[in-house]
Design goal:
The structure is a single chain. The chain has helices at residues 5-17, 38-48, 51-59, 61-83, 90-111, 119-128, 132-139, 141-146, 152-171, 178-203, 210-219, 268-283, 288-295, 318-326, 360-385; strands at 225-235, 307-311, 336-338, 341-352. By secondary structure, it is α+β, with helices and mostly antiparallel strands. The protein folds into 2 domains: 5-207 and 369-385, no CATH class; 224-240 and 261-352, Chitinase A, domain 3 (Roll). It is extended and about 80 Å long.
Length: 420
Amino acid sequence: MKLSTKVIAMMVLLGTLASGLLFVQCSSSSPKTVKLTAQDMQLIFQELLPPQQQQQIASNPEERKKLVADIRKLLAVAQVAEQEGYAEQAELKGQLSLSVDRALNDAYKKKNPDAKVTDEEINAYYATHPKEFDDFLQSNPRAAQQAQGPQKDELKKQLGEFKVLAERARNEGLERDGLTRLQILLTRSQALASAYLGNLQKNADKLVGDTDIEQYYKDHPADFDEIRVRHILISTQPKPEAEPESDAPDAKGGKDKKPASQPKPLTKDEARKKTQELLERARKGEDFAKLANENTDDAASKGKGGEYDFFGHGKMVPEFEKAAFALKLGEISEPVETEYGFHIIKLEERRTAASPTTDEKVKQQIVEKLKQEKIEARIEEIAASSDVVVPEDFDTTPKAGEPQTSSAAPAGRTAKPEEN
């Protein structure tokens, strides 16, 4: 499933909030209204967000509003999904059931870091749950594939330990712990919302007609500009390790191999200065392609005069793309800084992509864009009519030290300027 940045914003949020812990708490026919308290939001903020995001929210009221809005959208979409019976779907039900045990495992291990499970306990668990392992494999294709080989017994043992610890956690009432309860609620909502949005994505094609596609193409011509450029990259990244200087036999018949060395990368100031010098030479009339071949650190375009053939929007890192598309024909940019170093870019040619009636690639690009707009509109509609309560007034004092729950940074697209 491919969703736009706006559509997955609330899904990305939960990537930082928790580690895949899900829980079915109520029936699909009568889901409970979710009403978070200020204390709940404080726990989410201080315990589930990474330190950098805590600092951003603490210093920017708009970031706080965005956090509240994203959580509210997530919970509202999950509520609709539950009303429509998603929690009872076999494939999702198994995922939810397994993941609540993961939440309880984490809570139990946090309270009892030295906890051990004996083989007797595992055997006793399987004696009372004889289908547990087979059901687990049936609902987890990746695990089923692993179980085809010698890892099957070890996998079964690990699942047994997992289940025993979850039962211990239930017996100690850890489900009612404030932080664990929130982890369960949020990640359960993530799974339900993801399934719901996935179905919207699959069915959105029916909502986009040829007339819509043609009209979008006419209304947004700049979206379909393509440009051909040359660029010179002066890198601030570490250089590849050098090959040994010699591998020839020495006088004693041994190898006279000198150790490889790691070239020291340029500092930002050094790279900026070198880029500025090359820019001045190019603007004085030196051949840009020759300068690129002799000086660029971009292996992909070195030897091709720094050239990148026609590309459209969304193919390069933002700083590179913004500068390149802003150029006039034949114009050379000021130094452009990206995560890779400093670039100077020359615009060689600009064209508009073919009409969607003749270019299937362009047509599909528009279809995807319109589909995302319709999905985003549906999310906004759900949130506007929802009774979910997420308070905006809560303590945003960052917590000292690391959050208690490990988190995964949101995945984003970081295509290199060197890529077409």
